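Shift notes (night). Ran Putative Se/S carrier protein-like domain-containing protein while the centrifuge was going.
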Amino acid sequence: MSGMMLIAFDSTQQALRAEMLLDYAEIEIDLFPTPKEITAGCALSIQFPPTALKEVKEIIAHEKVEIRGVFAQNDNEIYISI
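Came back to this:
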């Protein structure tokens, strides 16, 4: 995996909540349209660098943010579930 990571959501409320929490933790994130290859109930996803994966997962779990899944971008720039 060489590209960015992405969190997909089933609701806009959870996406915006996660954005606020990750911003507060000073993690470099980008609100991003959910790629068409990812099935999710929300058109918004959060993109972040792979180096922040551990901290992002800890915050999401600790704050009980409901997510659809975490995805990694492979060498062909396609997101796969991890």
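Residues 5-81 form a domain with the Alpha-Beta Plaits fold (CATH 3.30.70). The chain has one domain: 5-81.
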